[in-house]
Specification:
alpha/beta, 5-stranded parallel sheet, 2 domains, 7 strands, Rossmann fold, 198 residues, 9 helices
Length: 198
């Protein structure tokens, strides 16, 4: 039976870095954010539905994520309307990924809003990626187009880091060196009885 591992954590905590380390160790990855970007890009399956529900957010055949974010962040009803469009499509893509890798010993699922959407029950183990608020803020504000107001809006809709850590099977603190983070990944793989490298 394939072990299903969820990787989650708030924005700027280092999920992508940690996910890449698991991939280096031979674990196949389903990246929910990357899938959403694909579905919202030119020719993507969600472009028409988003254009119809959120007029003006599609530019040159692709969803403009900044325009869409400005429309839904801070508005619970608009965000819920977007989730009704996006979540079923991502769940279908995830099911296809699982089927394509049904013989793998383990699969990793990068899902930023795992706890917020009540999705943790679908997984055997949950890993939370964490760092201090200062490190998180510095990382996120260094991103192109990010503002303090936008950061605060994103944080407001995410479960607090402490709550995520408390619900995790494993916590990886990315506030130290990359070598420390890699050691944590290796330790978790060993704990789960999985190969620690290719």
């Amino acid at each position: 039976m394939t072990l299903k591992i969820a990787l989650t954590g708030s924005i700027g905590m280092g999920k992508s870095t940690v996910a890449a380390m698991f991939v280096e160790a031979g674990i196949a990855l389903f990246d929910a954010d990357a899938e959403v970007r694909r579905l919202q890009s030119n020719g993507g399956a969600l472009v028409a539905a988003i254009a119809a529900r959120f007029p003006g957010t599609v530019v040159n055949g692709s969803v403009d994520r900044d325009l869409l974010g400005a429309r839904v962040l801070g508005d619970r009803d608009e965000l819920a309307a977007l989730e009704v469009i996006v979540h079923p499509a991502v769940q279908r893509a995830r099911a296809e990924f699982v089927e394509a890798h049904r013989d793998a010993p383990a699969l990793l699922f990068d899902i930023p809003l795992l706890f917020e959407t009540g999705g943790e029950m679908a997984f055997d183990k949950v890993i939370v990626v964490s760092a201090s608020l200062e490190i998180q803020r510095d990382r996120v504000l260094a991103r192109s187009g990010m503002t303090r107001a936008k950061f605060d809006g994103i944080i407001a809709r995410q479960l607090p880091d402490e709550a995520k850590r408390a619900r995790a099977d494993f916590v990886i603190d990315t506030g130290g060196s990359l070598d420390q983070t890699r050691a944590d990944v290796t330790r978790i793989l060993a704990c789960l009885g999985l190969p620690t490298g290719r």
